Amino acid sequence: MSGTGANLMSFIAIGVLVGCGVSLLLERSLSRVLLGVILIGNGVNLLIIFGARPGGAPVAGVTERGAMSDPLPQAMVLTAIVITFGFTAFLLAISYRSWYLTGDDEVPDDIEDQRIVRRAARKEVSAVDLGGEPPELDPEQLDAPAPGQRGEGPG
Amino acid sequence: MTALVPLPVLLPLLGAALTLLLVNRPLPQRLVSVSCLSATLLVAVLLLVRAYRHGPLVMQIGAWPAPVGIVLVADQLAALMLVVSSAVTLCVLLYSIGQGQGETGESAPLAIFHPTYLVLTAGVTNAFLAGDLFNLFVGFEMLLAASFVLLTLNGTRLRIRTGSTYVVVNVLASMIFLISVGLVYAATGTLNLAHLAARLDELPDGVRLSLQLMLLLAFGIKAAVFPLSAWLPDSYPTAPAPVTAVFAGLLTKVGVYAIIRTQTLLFPDERAGKLLLVVAGLTMLVGILGAVAQSDLKRLFSFTLVSHIGYMIFGVGLSTVAGLVGAIFYVVHHITIQTTLFLVAGLIEQRTGSTDLRRLGGLARVTPVLGVLFFVSAMNLAGIPPFSGFLGKLGLLQAGVAVGGVLPWTLVAVGTLTSLLTLYVASRVWSMAFWRVPCQTVRPSAPLPGLTVGATTVLVVLGVALTVVAGPLFDVTTGAAVDLRERTPYIHAVLPGGPP
């Protein structure tokens, strides 16, 4: 196939693939994230292929020297496909394991977010913002009480 | 001598294959992995000596000449990184072996740990030695794939949950890296770093800048530079102690190494310098403020890790030889110290069953050895003289002052402030975990396994020894930085006949 190589349609196709992939990546469910990774991976592979010189099969004796396509991006894409395949398999395993353990495969909130939500639920956010932590929550003051309550200490 | 160059990649890979065969026989498996990493360390030292005396060593794989074939290059920077990383991975491996003797249950090491760990090492060394962008990408993917497995060892609920964030973020970073590799090839027709150094100069300014920013974005996520760093403190702390330690020491530094390499070799103009300086300042401040707010030891250290990445980016952003010298020295110092701190956190967890500062207390009396190990490495991190942290920070601050101007001076101020806040964080941990009268009884566990304490001690001693050998070490980093700024030693070594 000695096509015309890169044209507008091919780049629109890459854009659509990557765009759909990115919007899927923004989802909370790991299986959708997985689909997003696959779409982006395919878009990137197309990008690498279209970035190179087009032409016939790069085999000596089959194609004229000047009419050969660039073989290097094809080798790179092969490597990239293998890597994307491995990562896809691993993501699939993780989302299955997550579903197995917890009943869903959603990416959780990070710890700080959870902490803020918990505090907001207990209406502590404003108190903390205004006057610092109350003494019983402040770990640095835990051993502040009178010596009588300290116990024996270690050893 | 050139035959030595691929060995740091081949030895761990060979070891990985062997240890996979020996999955059911723990003792031979451990012997194989320890001897593989020791041999790697030896080779790395030889490479460093050779690169220091006679310039970069180049291996053309399969005897394909440079711009076509794959090259591995061991210049001073790469060799220095190899020495530090293999020393650290060896110590952490010993630690994990020691930990395996004392533990059972959920955190017990699996048979798969050794092969995966060796693949991780091979990925790191491959990234350091890579002479072309695609091989650098492959190195990144090797270490990433291994790190996915190590981070989710045992597949417990917590590790799967935090691991999923890590996997998604890093796969995205790899995609961005791959896109930039594709674009670089489309624009220049080569991926060989030395060849690119010449070819990129011929491109229009806008194209060059966008390629540079794409690469910086990809490496910035890997190195956990501020706006791209939120994934790190969430995913690292849940992994087993040796895994967190080696991740903290090496993985982010591979990103920093890639930034140093591409910014000096491919894009030697200073256009990204200001951006890097701003980002470096924000990384330092936001990271250390995050650390101040934490009450869990491992999360706290994750935030100091993010914060101190800022120092290295600061050095790179200055775009002077002195800045690079400081940055490279700081990378060496930080790999050692951050790993040590996570190992100490692991020891504390093993001893007491917790890393929560609100529950710890009185450790200085229970285990004085642990107190000494923590104190020395924490002071080292904070930059108290005469430790290497002080020397690294001093070098960077001097480089900043020498450049002058509003932005570098601001960065000098931010760097000093961050150093002081690190000292505050370290003394807070010290007073809460070690000095305070314990508010809950420490778990009466058996004494710590000798090998874990031994491995951590070796790392602490290495960290202190960096001060002792600071003179020769500064010679090597200066040599590396001068070579990086000149670019010609690297380019001539890879392409003896000049770029085609």
From TrEMBL, chain B:
<dbReference type="GO" id="GO:0005886">
    <property type="term" value="C:plasma membrane"/>
</dbReference>
<dbReference type="InterPro" id="IPR003918">
    <property type="entry name" value="NADH_UbQ_OxRdtase"/>
</dbReference>
<feature type="domain" description="NADH:quinone oxidoreductase/Mrp antiporter transmembrane">
    <location>
        <begin position="130"/>
        <end position="421"/>
    </location>
</feature>
<feature type="transmembrane region" description="Helical">
    <location>
        <begin position="110"/>
        <end position="130"/>
    </location>
</feature>
<keyword id="KW-0812">Transmembrane</keyword>
<feature type="transmembrane region" description="Helical">
    <location>
        <begin position="448"/>
        <end position="474"/>
    </location>
</feature>
<feature type="transmembrane region" description="Helical">
    <location>
        <begin position="136"/>
        <end position="153"/>
    </location>
</feature>
<feature type="transmembrane region" description="Helical">
    <location>
        <begin position="80"/>
        <end position="98"/>
    </location>
</feature>
<feature type="transmembrane region" description="Helical">
    <location>
        <begin position="327"/>
        <end position="348"/>
    </location>
</feature>
<feature type="transmembrane region" description="Helical">
    <location>
        <begin position="300"/>
        <end position="321"/>
    </location>
</feature>
<feature type="transmembrane region" description="Helical">
    <location>
        <begin position="369"/>
        <end position="387"/>
    </location>
</feature>
<feature type="transmembrane region" description="Helical">
    <location>
        <begin position="29"/>
        <end position="49"/>
    </location>
</feature>
<keyword id="KW-0472">Membrane</keyword>
<comment type="similarity">
    <text>Belongs to the CPA3 antiporters (TC 2.A.63) subunit D family.</text>
</comment>
<dbReference type="Pfam" id="PF00361">
    <property type="entry name" value="Proton_antipo_M"/>
</dbReference>
<dbReference type="InterPro" id="IPR001750">
    <property type="entry name" value="ND/Mrp_TM"/>
</dbReference>
<feature type="transmembrane region" description="Helical">
    <location>
        <begin position="165"/>
        <end position="187"/>
    </location>
</feature>
<dbReference type="GO" id="GO:0042773">
    <property type="term" value="P:ATP synthesis coupled electron transport"/>
</dbReference>
<dbReference type="InterPro" id="IPR050586">
    <property type="entry name" value="CPA3_Na-H_Antiporter_D"/>
</dbReference>
<keyword id="KW-1133">Transmembrane helix</keyword>
<feature type="transmembrane region" description="Helical">
    <location>
        <begin position="239"/>
        <end position="260"/>
    </location>
</feature>
<feature type="transmembrane region" description="Helical">
    <location>
        <begin position="407"/>
        <end position="427"/>
    </location>
</feature>
<feature type="transmembrane region" description="Helical">
    <location>
        <begin position="207"/>
        <end position="232"/>
    </location>
</feature>
<dbReference type="GO" id="GO:0008137">
    <property type="term" value="F:NADH dehydrogenase (ubiquinone) activity"/>
</dbReference>
<feature type="transmembrane region" description="Helical">
    <location>
        <begin position="272"/>
        <end position="293"/>
    </location>
</feature>
<keyword id="KW-1003">Cell membrane</keyword>
<protein>
    <submittedName>
        <fullName>Na+/H+ antiporter subunit D</fullName>
    </submittedName>
</protein>
